[in-house]
């Protein structure tokens, strides 16, 4: 099976040795995104809602580069620094999946890259 690297200039560049996404056949595996603003390269320092919206925007740009959108997403993983933020993250996340939401897990972790509060990855199918 072939492997194609997917890259969007409208999403933040990877901060390590990984790709924004890898497409294999009709499946797209999107790396975890954090609240990095592509325009500045800086972490968005705001509310958990603002961080989550930035993460979802970054995911959206990568999906678009693969000619997909949130309707193609079949699985998401959400990593939270504080599970008390779950309802607030869920409110923003839910705006992107208004019908037939994907499978998902949400876990609390002790620390995330760049000390952000939320990271989300996804798998999409064309």
UniProtKB/TrEMBL annotation:
Q: Which GO terms describe its molecular function?
A: deaminase activity
Gene Ontology cellular-component annotations: cytosol
Q: Which Pfam families match?
A: Ribonuc_L-PSP
Write down the superkingdom of origin.
Answer: Bacteria
Q: Which InterPro entries match?
A: RidA, RutC-like_sf, YjgF/YER057c/UK114
Family per record? Belongs to the RutC family.
Q: What is this protein called?
A: RidA family protein
Native organism is Pseudochryseolinea flava
């Amino acid at each position: 099976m072939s492997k194609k690297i997917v890259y969007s200039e409208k999403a933040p560049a990877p901060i390590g040795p990984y790709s924004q996404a890898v497409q294999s056949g009709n499946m797209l595996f999107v790396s975890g995104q954090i609240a990095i603003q592509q325009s500045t390269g800086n972490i968005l320092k705001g509310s958990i809602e603002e961080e989550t919206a930035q993460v979802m925007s970054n995911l959206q740009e990568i999906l678009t580069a693969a000619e997909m959108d949130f309707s193609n997403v079949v699985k998401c993983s959400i990593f939270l620094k504080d599970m008390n933020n779950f309802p607030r993250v869920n409110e923003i996340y839910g705006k992107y999946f208004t019908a037939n939401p994907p499978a998902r897990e949400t876990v609390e972790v002790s620390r995330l890259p760049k000390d952000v509060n939320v990271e989300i990855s996804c798998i999409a199918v064309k």
